[in-house]
Amino acid sequence: MITMAITDWRQYLKEGEQYLQTALGAATRRPEVFTPEILYNLTGMAIEKLIMGFLMSRGDLAENHTMADLLRALGRHAEVPAELVQDLLYLDSFQEICDLATYRRRPPTPEESRRILAIGQAVRQFIASRTTH
Questions:
Q1: What is the DSSP string of 75-122?
Q2: Distances (CA, A) of 54 to 37, 38, 82, 103
Q3: What is the pTM of this model?
Q4: Could you give the CA distance from residue 15 to residue 48 in angstroms, rounded to a whole number?
Q5: Of 7, 50, 51, 93, whose CA is between 20 and 30 Å from 60?
Q6: Could you report the per-residue pLDDT of 63-83, keeping only the tens digit for each?
């Protein structure tokens, strides 16, 4: 099977980096405004964009956009370290919004938001080490 990169994949990587930089900056400069829940959402958007950019560069897309779905698609193209696997699945523990029957949300604590930001940085590093810009 021949695959071709999906156009605009670099834009996804750029946007993912921007979301992550916003979250990291906001956490230190404006913690009273950028709550742990907002930081979770910004970091989640960053991770989604970074992984989708990586997948698009390989002519692939994830079936859905939960962290488990993104992880499964990522695993088709790279060996994901066990710690990063656990971290991405941990992020899914905060919400299940895809199915109305099982809808649930739990806002992260300030301590959890530090881990969430670190996961975003780990994903950025993982993707950057496997992508040529």
A1: HTTS---HHHHHHHHHHHTTEE-S-TTS-EE-PPPHHHHHHHHHHHHH
A2: 26, 24, 19, 29
A3: 0.91
A4: 10
A5: 93
A6: 988 999 999 999 999 999 999
